[in-house]
Write a structure and sequence with these properties.
- The complex is a heterodimer.
- By secondary structure, chain A is mainly α.
- Helix content of chain A is about 65%, strand content about 5%.
- Chain A contains 18 helices and 4 strands.
- Chain A has helices spanning about 5-20, 20-25, 30-40, 60-70, 90-95, 125-155, 165, 180-195, 195-210, 215-220, 225-255, 260-285, 290-310, 320-325, 330-345, 350-370, 385-395, 400-405; strands at about 50-55, 75-80, 100, 120.
- In chain A, strands 2-1-3-4 form a 4-stranded mixed β-sheet, with helices on one face.
- In chain A, helix 4 links the parallel strand 1 and strand 2.
- In chain A, helix 3 (about 30-40) packs antiparallel against helix 8 and helix 8 packs across helix 15.
- Chain A is elongated.
- Chain A starts with a helix and ends with a helix.
- The model of chain A is unreliable at about 165-180 and about 390-405 (pLDDT under 50).
- Chain B is of the alpha/beta class.
- Chain B has helices at about 45-50, 75-80, 95-105, 110-125, 140-150, 170-185, 195-200, 220-225, 240-250, 270-280, 295-305, and strands at about 5-15, 20-30, 35-40, 60-65, 70, 80-85, 160, 190-195, 205-210, 215-220, 230-235, 250-260, 260-265, 290-295.
- In chain B, helix 3 (about 95-105) packs parallel to helix 5, helix 4 packs antiparallel against helix 5 (about 140-150) and helix 8 packs across helix 11.
- The chains are: A mainly alpha, B alpha/beta.
Chain lengths: ~400, ~325
């Protein structure tokens, strides 16, 4: 590879990046901004959800329950009602997302085993907040009931610990909407953000084809591998800068633990960046316009990492053929390695398969792109010309269009 | 192949899907020639030049540039040639100097060699005072000059220019051609395509391209000599009515209209001139001028197109 050519191309590409505000933002602020949006989206914490109360008991126990609901950060009491029917209008307006109906006998225990039942009505149109409010009120009511029962037993002179075994209910969190999920996703999400420099690279090459500067380049004696490597190099540098920024952001703003070796993680990130950029070159070698580049890049860079890389949905649960297919995508290996290094402190040695595949992809994708790339121009014949041709032929043979199709 | 041949084109064709852009062209361009490829839009000029520049492979025939095959030895050709594509092939966000230095790196012009070369190019193209301008902010004519400076940065023996003066004002066009004449004087083989017939007059030889075929390939004077007869220039108050009547006269080959001027191509100057005078007389037109006019490339080209052998199909049948 001609190094002078490579550095000439790299310098030129660096000028392009820093002189075009759009590209510059895409490779610097873009990943950080996208990360903030994603993490915000994933921490959809419900706070102060408005809850209505229908209190039939009007006793100390019900007042205590209402106080506890009000005190919980998830819920707040928005209104009081006389009956369940009275809540309809406020539900429709969205003024409340849930209503709690406290029965007349709340706080009274019957020796016959008659347990007072608290009713919950939730707005199914707001599934996220409904589920959390339901869970929160359930927990509050359950604890309160146990406290009351304990007090009652003490009143009989019995040890309240007797109660623990039969009624104790462990509340299970169905999904984890608190900050812990961000910690789980963060290392994988970092990889997603690193596809932005790759997108910028694919766009840059497509732009050269559109503007005709590629024609000038392929007519020069420039070494084609140096041409592609030179174009790629500045994006690799910006990609690694992004890694450092996102890493620091994770430590400082999201308290993401890092238990592995920093050197190993940087190596993984470097290989992943190279693989991504190689994939971008491969796309750009085939397409000749920026619009097509964006569409193809979206399909390749955003869809597989999101749904198939095991970042959100476990990869083991996918059909074998999909797992096989995902071996070719660098993001899958990156997610496995990054999660393990960040959260478990695993060494690369224990995930050698993923690491080796990632290393192969990092080098091979570039080589494939360089192998396919030809220093020739691709002349695209507009389709319109095609259609006009056919029309011409039809008019020559004087056949009506419908007939000629049949 | 003779040693003084720079470009040897043997029955070269190029089709895009079923459209035949270049139809078995055979041409030979000598070293040191200023060669023009002249033709209207869509004649196949760019396709032919791109094949010469080894960035487009022919679908039939062979091209040899200084003995290098354009398909097998494409990279050898690229280092001995300077190429200017039709559009602006340089980077609009880079300055004049940055563009030149980038091109120099790509062509391996470095160090002291480059520092000696740059002032020469600035001087030659008059771009010295614009060297820190962004290329995109230059005028059309200056962009072309910059592109030329980049194309000759490595002093190539061969220069391929695809419509270098399209979209450039007449003064800048003239200036650009003066540069080309200068390069030609230094011995650079130059192939230039153009849709402008007046530019063709400045070439040693021209190939007239039409529908992918060479109608004629000769020196401009020889091509003009192919048109039989002479040209008479007529101005009158009623050209519009006269034109079809004149065409009906025997001995009138062709008429071309330029505003209120009619260029009449005639077989025999004296006999047809008297017939025209008779016609003007019978049509009672007195305020006219009828003078001898030189044959121009434009007349010659249109004559050759109209009298080309047989019909030239636009596309080949599938």
């Amino acid at each position: 590879m001609n190094l002078r050519h490579m550095f000439a191309l790299a310098r030129k590409e660096f000028y392009h990046i820093v002189r075009d505000p759009g590209t510059f933002l895409l490779v610097t602020v873009g990943p950080v901004f996208l990360m903030i949006v994603f993490t915000y989206m994933l921490t959809s914490e419900v706070k102060n959800a408005p809850v209505g109360v229908i209190d039939h008991a009007h006793n100390d126990a019900s007042a205590e329950l209402i106080d506890r609901i009000e005190a919980d950060p998830v819920t707040r009491i928005a209104a009081y009602y006389e009956s369940v029917d009275a809540t309809d209008l406020d539900f429709q307006r969205g003024d409340i997302v849930a209503a709690v109906e406290i029965p007349e006998n709340y706080g009274q225990f019957s020796l016959l085993g008659d347990v007072p039942t608290v009713h919950m009505i939730v707005d199914g149109m707001e599934p996220t907040s409904a589920e959390q409010v339901l869970e929160t009120v359930y927990t509050i009511a359950d604890e309160h009931t146990r406290d009351l029962a304990g007090d009652a037993l003490s009143g009989f002179g019995l040890d309240s610990s007797l109660l623990d075994l039969p009624i104790n209910v462990e509340t299970e969190t169905l999904f984890n909407p608190d900050l812990r999920s961000i910690v789980d996703f963060y290392p994988g999400l970092m990889g997603m953000m690193l596809t932005l420099p790759a997108l910028a690279l694919a766009l840059s090459l497509a732009k050269e084809a559109e503007n005709g500067t590629l024609e000038q380049l392929v007519a020069s004696p420039v070494d084609k591998r140096a041409l592609l490597a030179g174009k790629m190099l500045p994006y690799l540098v910006f990609g690694m800068i992004d890694v450092v920024i996102l890493f620091i952001m994770g430590q400082v703003a999201y308290s993401v633990p890092f238990r592995g070796s920093l050197l190993e993680y940087m190596l993984v990130a470097l290989l992943f960046n190279m693989a991504n950029l190689g994939l971008a070159l491969l796309i750009a070698v085939f397409v000749r316009s920026q619009q097509v580049a964006i569409i193809v890049a979206f399909l390749v860079f955003f869809v597989p990492p999101f749904f198939l890389s095991g970042m959100f949905f476990p990869a083991d649960a996918m059909p074998f053929i999909v797992q096989l297919e995902m071996v070719e995508f660098p993001s899958m290996h990156y997610v496995s390695l990054a999660k393990a290094i960040f959260l478990q402190g695993t060494s690369i040695r224990d995930l050698l398969f993923n690491f080796v595949i990632l290393a192969i992809l990092g080098i091979e994708l570039f080589e494939i792109a360089a192998f396919i790339f030809r220093k020739k121009i691709i002349v695209t014949v507009p389709w319109r010309k095609w259609f006009n041709r056919d029309e011409k032929r039809q008019s020559l043979t004087q056949q009506p269009i419908a007939q000629s199709r049949g | 192949m003779a040693n003084d041949t720079m470009i040897d084109i043997q029955s070269v064709s190029r089709s895009f899907r079923q459209t035949l852009a270049v139809d078995s062209i055979t041409l030979s361009i000598r070293r040191g020639e200023l060669f023009g490829i002249v033709g209207p839009d869509g004649a196949g000029k760019s396709t032919l030049l791109r094949m010469m520049a080894a960035i487009l492979n022919p679908t039939g025939g062979t091209i040899a540039i200084a003995g290098h095959d354009s398909v097998k030895d494409a990279e050898d050709i690229k280092s001995i040639m300077g190429y200017m594509p039709q559009g602006f092939g340089l980077y609009t966000d880079l300055s004049v100097q940055e563009n030149l230095r980038f091109t120099a790196d790509v062509y391996g012009v470095t160090g002291a060699q480059l520092e000696k070369r740059l002032p020469v190019l600035y001087e030659f193209t008059d771009l010295a005072s614009f060297k820190d301008y962004q290329a995109g902010k230059l005028s059309g004519g200056m962009k072309k000059k910059l592109a030329l400076a980049c194309a000759i940065i490595h002093e190539p023996p061969l220069l391929l220019l695809d419509e270098p003066t399209t979209g450039v004002d007449p003064v800048a066009r003239r200036g650009f051609w003066d540069l080309l004449s200068g390069l030609h004087a230094q011995g650079t083989t130059t192939v230039v395509s153009t849709p402008y017939m007046d530019e063709a007059e400045r070439c040693n030889r021209v190939a007239l391209l039409y529908n992918g075929r060479v109608l004629a390939c000769d020196s401009p004077s020889a091509i003009k000599a192919r048109v039989p007869g002479a040209v008479l220039a007529l101005t009158s108050s009623d050209n519009r009515r006269l034109a079809p009547l004149l065409l009906g006269l025997s001995g009138v080959i062709d008429i071309q209209t330029y505003g209120n001027l009619l260029n009449i191509i005639v077989t025999d100057r004296d006999t047809v001139r008297s017939r025209i005078l008779d016609l003007l007389d019978s049509e009672q037109i007195d305020d006219y001028t009828l003078e001898d006019a030189p044959m121009r490339m434009e007349e010659a080209f249109i004559y050759l197109v109209n009298h080309a052998e047989g019909a030239l199909p636009e596309e080949v049948a599938s």
